[in-house]
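A common beginner's mistake is to predict each chain separately and then try to dock the pieces by hand. The better habit, illustrated here, is to supply every component at once so that their relative placement is modeled jointly.
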Amino acid sequence: MEVIGMDEIYKSLAEIVDEEYVSNRKEELYIYSQDPGMMEPHEPDYVVMPKTTEEVQKIVKLANKEKIPIVPVGGSMSLSGLVIPHRGGIALDLKRMDRVLEVNEKSRHVVVEAGMTQGKLKAYLERRHPDLRHSIPDAPPSATIVGNIVIHGQGRLTQQYGFNSDMVTGLEIVLPTGEVCKIGTCSVSPYWFALAPLPDLAGLFLGWFGTTGVITKLGLKLYPNKKIRDAEVFVVEDPNLVPDIIYRLTHTEMTEDIVLGAQPYPPIFKDIIMIMILITGDSEEEIEFKRRMIWDALRTYIDSKEGGFSMLTPDMKQNLLKMPSDDTTKLADVLKGGGFEYAGPIIPVEKYPETYKKLLELTSKYGITFGHAGRVIGRSHCMMFSFAYPFNRADPDNIERTKKALHETNVASLDIGGVPWKPEVPSQKMIMERMDKNTLELMKRVKKLLDPNGIMNPGNWEAK
Amino acid sequence: MPELKLKFNEKLCATCPTYDCLVRCQYMNIDKDTAKAEMQKMIHNEDSFVLHQCATCYACEEYCKRGNHPFYLITDLQEKRGIFPIPKPLVKQWVNACIPGRRDIQQFWGAKEPVISLCVFPEYVDSIQGKLFEDVSIIMGRYVCCQPGYVHFGNPSIIRERLPRMIENIAKHNFKEVIFFHDECYSAFTSYAPAYGIEVPFKPIHFFDYLYNKLKEHEGEIKLLNIKVAYQRPCTSRLTPKKEHFVDDILSLIGVKRIERKYDRENCLCCAGTIRGQQRYDLFVDVQKRNVEDMVNAGAEYCVFNCPACFNSLSEAVAKKGIKPIMMHDLCKLALGEKTAGWK
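With all components supplied together, the output reads:
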C-alpha cells in the first residue's frame, strides 16, 4: 500500500473540514498532548475538528486507509490520559458537533451530537424544557455528554437510575472502517427512545474509550426536574457504619443523590466522613416528607450518638446544591502546582470501610494530601470511591510520591474486589491481567473485528 | 494549671423562692417542686432528666435573678456524667474547628483601636464597611475565637482550657478595649470568664454598644426606616441581659418599631440551631414554626439578627414566610443610606 506523505494527509483533512479546522501547528498539538493527570504527554500529528457525521466518516476512512491512529476527543476531562494520542496520529476534536437534535418531552429523552457539553445541555434544558434534566456529573461544564458516557460516568441522578451510561437510548457510530451505524430503536424507527428490545450492541462502544468507533450522536434519557432541591449532611467518624447508612438511605428511595466526602483540611473535616444527601420536591411539603423519612432512616445512629445531621449554613447549602459541584475543581489546584490525578474504583458498597482505611494508609505512607469523594450508584448496587491526589508539577519528589500512591491505589482497588474506573493505560493493563482469560479473548476478537487496523485510540484497552 | 471551678452558691439555690431557672424553661414542663428536687440532685452530682432534655438555650442563666449559674452547673454535670447532647462526630468537628491558632497573626500587631473581633466569621468582613466602621481594625480567626459554644456540646471544660489562651492572645496586643461582633464572645468574657474566676485584662465592648455610639455620631445623617421588625435574641444574650437595652436604643434611633410579640425578650425562643444539632428534629421544627408564626402574626417585615449562627439557622425559615432576614449592623447601614453586603 502506498503511504502518502504527511503534507498529503494535512491536505486531505483540509479538504474534508476546511483549512480553518485542521492544524499541525506545534502550539495547538501541545494542547492535545496532555491532561492534568499523571500520564506522559504525547502530541498528535494533526488536530481536526469536523462539523458533521459525514466529515467524521471521511476522516475515519482516511485514517483507516492510511493506518493512522485516530483519537476521538471530547472535553479532555478524564484526568487519566484517555485521549492523549499515545502514538500520535489524528486528534479528532468533536467540539464543533454540539447541537441538540431533538428533545422528546413526553418520552423524556434528548438526542445530541458528540461534542455537546454538560453545561450547554443543562442551559438548553433550563431555558426550553425546565421540567426536564439530565444526570450532570461533577465535572467542569466543558466536559461532554458523550465523553462521560463512554467512560461509564456518574452524575446527580446516578443513585436513582444507575451509571450515566445506563441512560443511553441510542447511538450513531462511525465504525473504524468508516461505516455509519445506528444502535437502538433509532436503527429501526425514527425515534431514539430505547436500546431495547433489540440485541444490545451499545456495549460494543460504552466503556471502550473510543477504541471501537466514534460516537457521533447520542440519545439520552431525561428525568423530571423538580422545582426545589435541598440538602442534608450526615457525619460519622467510623467508616464501618457507612455501608449500612447507605443501605438505609437508599431503602427510603427518597434521595436524589448520595455523595460521600472526606478530607484532612481544614480541621473541621479531619477524621470525619460526610454523607451528602440531596433531596428534591415540587413543594415544601414534599421536601419535608422526604427529609423526615431520611432522618427516621438513620435514627439508630442518631440515638447511639455515632452520627448526626450537620447544621448547614445557607452558603454551605448553596455549595452542596451546585450542579456541577466545583469542589473537585477547587481541590485539583490546592497545591498550586497544576497537577491532579484520581483513581476512582467502582466498589461494592460493603467494601467502603476497607477502601477508606487504605486511602488513609497510602496518603500517610507517601506523605501526600488527598480529597475523597464517593457516589452511590443505584440503590446501593455499588459506589464510586475516589482517591483524589492533587500534586505539584514543579515538584519532582511530589510527582514521584503521587505516582507511587496512584499505582498502589489501583493495585489495592483490585485486591479489595473493586475495578478501577476510567483507568489510565497502566491500570487498564492491571485489569486485563486479572481478567477472565475468555473475557479478554472476547475483547480482543471484538476489537479486531471492529478495528482491523488498530487505528482507534491505540494504547487503550490493548489486550495482548 | 489549677482546675477552674464554677462559682455556684448552693445555699442560694436551696433557698430560692421561685426556681424560675427550670420552671420558666421553654422546652421542659417543670413545676416548682420538681425544679427544686432536680436542682438538688444536680448540685449533688446526681443524674437528672434535666441533663438529658436540656436544649442548652442558656435561658436559665437569665431566669435566675440571684446571679447563680444554673446553666453552667447543668453543662458541667453533663460533661462529668458523659452525657453528650449532640452526636459525637459533630462535637469532634467543632472541637477541631476552633483549635486555637498556634501562630501569632502578624497583621494584628500595630492594629489601632477601635478593634473589632469577628471571631470565626470571616464572611462578615465585607459587611464591616462604611461610615460606621471607618478607621476600625478587625481581628478574627481561631487565634481569637472565644470558644464558648462547647456548653452546647457537653464538653465545657474545653472552654476553660482554651479561653485563658485566647485572652492571652488578645491581651498581648495591649488593646484597652475590644469590640466583640459575636454576642457569644462578649458573653464569654463578661459572664463565663468571671463565673470561673478567669481574669480579663481588657474591656470587652458589645458590638451593639459600639453601633449605638457610632450611630449617635452620625445622627444627623440617619434616614428613619419606618419599618416593623422582629428581633431574634441569641442564646448568649441570656448571659448578659444588661446590655439588651442597646437593641431598643438602636432601633429607636433609626426609626424601627420592634413589634410586640409573644416570643421576645425574656420569653424569646432559641433559633433552634442547637436543637437541630441535638437531632431533635420535631422540636426544632416546632420551635422555629412557633417563632416565625409569631413574627408573621405580629406583622414583622424584617427579622433582625444579632448572632451569625442564629442567622444561619433561622434566616431561611423567616424568608420563606416573606420576612426579610437582616443582621443588625446591616439594618443600621440602611438607615445611613448605605447598601448591605448581600446575603451571606
